[in-house]
Amino acid sequence: MAGIPSRHRSLFLLGGVVLLQVLLLAVQIKRDSQGRLIRVWTVGAVSPFERAGAHGIGGIRNVWNHYFALQNTSRDNEQLKRENDSLKLQITQLQAKAAEADRLAGLLKFRQTNVNVPMVAARVIGGGPSTASFTIDLDRGEHDGIKRDMGVITPDGVVGKVIESYKDTSQVLLLTDKDSGVGAMLADSGIQKPVGGTGESLLAMKYVPNEDDVTAGQRVVTSGMDRIFPRDLPVGTIVDIKAGSTFKQIRVKPAANLERLQEVFVLLTLKPLDLKHEFIAPAAASTPPAGSSASAANPGVSEKQ
Amino acid sequence: MNINDTFDIRTGELHIEVHKFRAGAIFLAAGLALVLQAFLPVYLPKVGILDLPLLITIYFGLSRRNPSTGLLLGCLIGIAQDALSGPTVPVGLFGIAKTIVGYLASSIGARLDTEHPAARFALTIVFFAVHQGIVVVTQHLLLSQPQRWFTVHLGVAALINAVVAVFLFLLLDRLRKPS
């Protein structure tokens, strides 16, 4: 640049540098290259700083998130707790509704499978006010055809029987009441014996001689001999057996959840019925009526004297 | 004359000082601007509206007031920015623009007092527009990639860059050696 005036040198330099870059662009377009060498050098030079910067920012973020940003955490925490409580309540309500829906679906299915059986669904509206008796109140009464001594069941099993019927309500004596009883038999062996309440949560199967073979876990169903409940309705399951002086002391856990009844069916007839039950085991369903033990049973037991 | 020389230009009544910077300050600032421009938008996307390499080019152009060093610095910064921008940006696109901006900034800096924040604000907007214009022309003529000359986003970007420039230039003034 010796011959170029000094005030024009920078202008020429500008022209040269711009021209070189235009050529560089042209080369990239022409050869479809991407200036890889320049990029590799530049990125190689800058990336360590980028990495260090990213590490630094990560550290700053970490400090910020774990220390300075915590001043809002307490407020957020309280809000989340409130939301959590609200959601828990909603979940509980939804679970209750789902359980109710399941229960009602079960009742409906039971009702549909026994469409020819005269029965009426009733809602439990109250319980016995005394601990001495196990009774429940239903929202159906004489207007719905309910009469004294009618059987009360759920799809799970026997509940009890109607002991009083009023205009629009009725009272049911639960199977667990010490004055209650039902004609029953062992589903496996067909041994027929009465099952009665004990005033506790478990029932008692009575008059089973010590020499009879009874084991825990055996299912107890109605025998149909009491003329209140149809045959083969689940009564419960044997949970405890003790030898007595003459008869075994047998405890039976009720098949129906008598402590949490909400809806039941009242059988609107005192005649023997033929209910269809999905929950009756094939072995039990095919078991012929007991022979030798039948005479020992008390077929008419519905309410002990 | 080398890059760290200082001298006064006296033209009539006008007195313009050429500033000298601490050793490596120019390259350090340029490198830092490139690094920040490359990775800050990853964490703060809105920061991408800033063109820190352009602001560095403008600042050192205005301060050094030497067109040759100004255009070479702009060229290096622009090419580095191209290289870091990935294969979709051809090397030379921002290089050409920043070369010209560096030259213009140095030339104007040699004739005007650019120390006042208002002057810096206005000049940054002008140079941002020039830079954008050159990029659009380059894309249009050399790369056959027509772009819009002006958008609201670009207008906002020009204003934001100018505001940031005012404060950034004050910060960079601290890198100067005392005269």
Topology:
The complex is a heterodimer of chains A (305) and B (179).
Chain A: H1 6-31, H2 36-66, H3 73-113, E1 119-127, E2 135-138, E3 151-154, E4 157-165, E5 170-174, E6 181-186, E7 192-197, E8 203-205, E9 219-222, E10 234-242, E11 249-254, E12 263-267, H4 282-286
Antiparallel strand pairs in A: 1-2, 1-12, 2-5, 3-4, 3-12, 4-5, 6-7, 6-9, 7-8, 8-11, 9-10, 10-11
Chain B: E1 8-11, E2 14-17, H1 25-43, H2 52-64, H3 67-84, H4 93-109, H5 117-141, H6 152-173
The total of helices of chain A stands at 4
- Which structural category do the helix and sheet elements of chain B fall into? mainly alpha
Strand segment count of chain A:
12
Biggest sheet features of chain A: 6 strands, antiparallel, barrel
How far apart are the termini of chain B? 17 Å
Strand order of the biggest β-sheet of chain B: 1-2
- What's the alpha carbon Rg of chain B, rounded to whole Å? 16 Å
Strand percentage of chain A lies at: 15-25%
Quote the average pLDDT of chain A: 79
**Proportion of residues in helical segments of chain B:** 55-70%
What would the principal axes of the Cα set say about the shape of chain B?
globular
The CATH superfamily of the largest domain in chain A is Rod shape-determining protein MreC, domain 1
Count the DSSP helices of chain B.
6
Q: Would you kindly provide a written description of the structure presented here, covering whatever features stand out?
A:
- The complex is a heterodimer of chains A (305) and B (179).
- Chain A has 305 residues and is α+β, with helices and mostly antiparallel strands.
- Chain A has 2 domains: 35 residues; 183 residues, Thrombin, subunit H (Beta Barrel), CATH 2.40.10.340.
- Chain A is 34% helix and 23% strand.
- In chain A, the strands form 2 sheets. Chain A has a 6-stranded antiparallel barrel.
- In chain A, strand 7 and strand 8 form a beta hairpin.
- Chain A is rod-shaped and about 135 Å long.
- By secondary structure, chain B is mainly α.
- Chain B has one domain.
- A two-stranded antiparallel ribbon of chain B has the order 1-2.
- The longest helix of chain B is centred in the last third of the chain and has 25 residues.
- The chains are: A alpha+beta (305), B mainly alpha (179).
- Chains A and B meet through helix 1 and helix 2 of A and helix 1, helix 3 and helix 4 of B.
